[in-house]
Amino acid sequence: MINLALDIGTTAVPESYLFYFLAPLSVLAALGMLLVKKAVHSALLLAWVMISLAIFYIAQDALFLGIVQIVVYTGAVMMLFLFILMLVGVDTSDSLEENIPGLRPVSIVAAIGFGGLLVSLIGRATFGRPIYGLSAANADGNAFGIAEQLFTKYVFAFEVVSALLITAALGAMVLGHSQRSKSKFAQRDLSIARFRKNNLNDAAGLPAAGVYALHNAVDVPALLPTGKAAPTSISNVLQARGDMIESSTFQMKSEEEEEK
Amino acid sequence: MQTSENLLWLIALPLFSSAILLLAGKRANSWGHIMGTIVSASTFTIGVVEFFAMQGRPEESRAVTQKLFTWISVGSFNVDASLLLDQLSICFVLLITGVGTLIHVYSIAYMSHDLDRRRFFAYLNLFIAAMLLLVLGDSYLNLYVGWEGVGLASYLLIGFWNQKPAYATAAKKAFVANRVGDVGLSLAVMIAFATFGDVSFSGMKENIDQASSTQLTAIGLMLLLAACGKSAQFPLQSWLGDAMAGPTPVSALIHAATMVTAGVYLITRSNFVFDEAPVAQLMVLIIGGITLLFGAIIGTAKDDIKKALAASTMSQIGYMILATGLGPIGYAFAIMHLLTHGFFKASMFLGAGSVMHGMKDEVNMRKYGGIGKFMPITALTFGLGYLAIIGVPPFAGFYSKDKIIETAFNEGGIKGLALGLATLLGAMITAFYMTRVVILTFFGNERWGHKDEPHESPALMLIPIGLLSVGSVASGYLLSRGESLVHWLEPVVNPLKEHHKELLPPIVVSLMTLAVVVIGISIAVVKYRGDQLDKAPEKVSMLTKAARRDLFQDDFNEATLMRPGQSLVKNLLNIDYLLIDGLVRAVGGVSISTGNKLRTLQNGYVRSYALLMVIGALALIATIWAVTA
Amino acid sequence: MAIANYLYLSAILFTIGAIGVVVRRNSIVVFMCIELMLNAANLAFVTFARINSNLEGQVVAFFTMVVAACEVVVGLAIIVTIYRSRRSASVDDASLLKR
């Protein structure tokens, strides 16, 4: 019995340097993805892990997959993730407080137990024949070899997967499409709502802002008959920002004052 | 043996009628009682036709049978549902249908104000059918069906007014007491099957030699137990007094004339067993003797007219049972007393019903008095029944009771003396309490305490009473003339093996009886003449107190049977509750609490499901790890 | 260096991804962790292809990528739909199955 991992299945020295350099970094990035608070940071760390993996693929004579990994995963899928993150709010940060009691320790213990057993199994695994690498299989080029497999032996699976892709695209469209359950709030509804209020003060609509030739009137309140400014005549936002100008500065002066 | 096709109709007609009346519901309210009565009258007609047909045949071939169908056929055990009409059954058929029809007629008037009259007639017809099946069955198993049927009808009729809890309880008490007797009958049937492999009367009679005397004694004692239950004999007598809760026609028909005499029929029918089982026969004598005195003593203290009559019934059936214990000669006299008793007791019960009808359903004799003036016909017929029961010649009771007393003395030895003295004493007490009933009811001062005068009952009630009175006057003479009934029954109850010796000449016994009867009457007259209070006196002797409490029969039953039974049931219930239910509940509780614990796993959080998947993967990989180690 | 080191790396990344799926509550991060697990599996497949000296492992990895892409598309669409109605991207808020 030949031990796969230790005796025969070894790599060239440059590849081992590459591995020893990138592998710890990708593990760290993965852990970071777990631990950082902001989803955007997680996404970036995941992109880093994926690029590392693409490099490993290429190092392992899987050129085609490495390119696909970078183009499809890191390019398309991760962009999709970021896009959705924008959509649902970049700053919806995940609170790291656990609200299901006991879940976190149990899950960490279980997962680490699982990983430990997996590693132990790999360590025990043996292989019955020597490893020649992929140079024979990749004689005509890696993409050619994979294409040969895909369009001969796995052609049916390939077609099924293409159907799956189309279905998924359609499904995403169906899910993304939202139909209004209520008709839009129109002028008529606004009018009805005003009359339904308890007081009829605003029944005829809010007063318009005061109009003065000397100033853009949007931030100048109208004047009530008593001579006071009417705050309801300008937008709440402008009031909150304090961008409100005292309308008295534009008040016409009486004739007597003019004469002086 | 000849066959007859008519016997089925005797049972089928009233049974169908009963079913129709019960199923038709309110629609039958207007005509139900008429149909019930007509059906009863037609059974009587069939009975009369069969009787004359039977008389026309020679003595050996008088009995007829009718096989209905094969009922049970299991291996060597074959029972046919077949009917037997012989000289003994025809007496009962005529009594049941005859008295039954009169009481149907009486009930039309008596129950006219009751909303449920239709149901009453349905039950009456059911009773007629069951009682006829009882006396017509040709095997103990067929008899058993009728036996249970009359028990059911009796239960339904005692509890007819079951809206009153006391009446419903009385019905239950009667049913339970009867059930104790029924156990005896079923055991007797089982022992008979084990012994003979056959439960028909004829089959057992032929093979009577096969059985050992022990087996016969066992069968006899079990049959006696059954008879005690149905005929209210000591120690199962306590239900009869309470059974008076039923409507008075029921008391007259079921609890005086017919059903309660089923025990006498059973023992007479089983004469071939008792003749070979002297121990059982002695027990029959003892039971009869005890009961006739027991009933008589209770009768002296009862103020409720129906209960007094019920006690009297118990006592008179004691006479009959005692007579059946006297062997071949006694059976005929038992049946004779049964028939005459059926007439005069039914007539007196109906008379009591008539008095109650006129007195707004008052049953307390202390609130009667002087009713004779207002209800002359009732008083007259009641008086005739009274003379018959105390045994004044030439009324019916004289012939039948006198013969029993005479036969008891003729038994000879200490046994004969004891039985004779017991029957004589019974006759004296009977005279006393019946005189008391008559004086308190029909003579003396008026004590009913309201202005409404009692009124005579309608003709529809009086005619049946009158006809029964004719029976109570004449039946004794007719049946004993030339010992006609004795000869009539000879083929059924074994003919006399030896000519019975006469220790005392009949005239001496008759004179002795008359003498004690006169003594009894005199005591009663002396004690109850003049004005009476409308309340029972408080200061009375211990014996009276005991008699008022039915000689502590209920207290005895309560102390020895009911309380231990109840505590047993209570304990069993506790065991059931704690142990069996506890186990069941424990299983349920464990399931529920496990479920509640497991439910928390299904908390709706996707992440916890993911955790479960991780744990599952861990388990899988651990298995692989362990297997490949 | 042993080729098996790639497998160890794959196992470690897979475990980290599994922990992330269970522990993180932001549904998008959960999805990223799932992607990490898929990628770890892909690394194992590629390594197996090399060990077995044929390209079948790479073909399987290719299929995995396609399926993962489908899954991401549909999964993110679901997240958006849930977010639209519940205004939250936390997986714990979507616990209507509780009762």
Automatic annotation (TrEMBL), chain C:
EC class (word): translocase
Catalysed reactions, as listed in the record: a quinone + NADH + 5 H(+)(in) = a quinol + NAD(+) + 4 H(+)(out)
Gene3D superfamilies: 1.10.287.3510
Pfam families given in the database record: Oxidored_q2
Membrane topology annotation: Multi-pass membrane protein
EC number, as in UniProt: 7.1.1.-
GO biological process per UniProt: ATP synthesis coupled electron transport
UniProt keywords, alphabetically: Cell membrane, Membrane, NAD, Quinone, Translocase, Transmembrane, Transmembrane helix, Transport
GO cellular component labels: NADH dehydrogenase complex; plasma membrane
Protein family membership: Belongs to the complex I subunit 4L family.
Annotated protein name in UniProt: NADH-quinone oxidoreductase subunit K
Organism in which the protein naturally occurs: Candidatus Nanopelagicus limnae
